[in-house]
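User: Fold this; tokens only.

Assistant: Input:
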Amino acid sequence: MPGPVLVGVAGSQDHDEDKPGVAKWRVTRDGLRVLCALGRADGLLHPAEVEVVLDYIEAACRVEGEQCGAEDRAALAPCIRRQRPGLDVLEACLLRIEARDPAAHFLLLDHAERLIVADGQEHDAELRLLAEMRQPG
């Protein structure tokens, strides 16, 4: 499945790495998809949850030596709001993160815990998904 087209601020189909958000999307795609699925587990991705996903992107980029600034966040926010990853995508993303680096998995879990309380409510569906995320492989 091809990556999303970052419309508006981020540009066109060519995914030019110089455009805001594009390089950051590529660095963090698996984690942000997992967090979007977690945020939507209760049926709605709340604006506060979008901010947690953006914070995750910023933190993951720092680990990779990338800067993630206001322009990147502005370009990525609408893309995050459009994400609706299915269970097959979620599983594949989690497996890649777990296989790549334990620190990346820990960073994802840290932001997942922040995300489930970001909207002021802990929903059973989010808690169940978080529990599954904590299980190895």
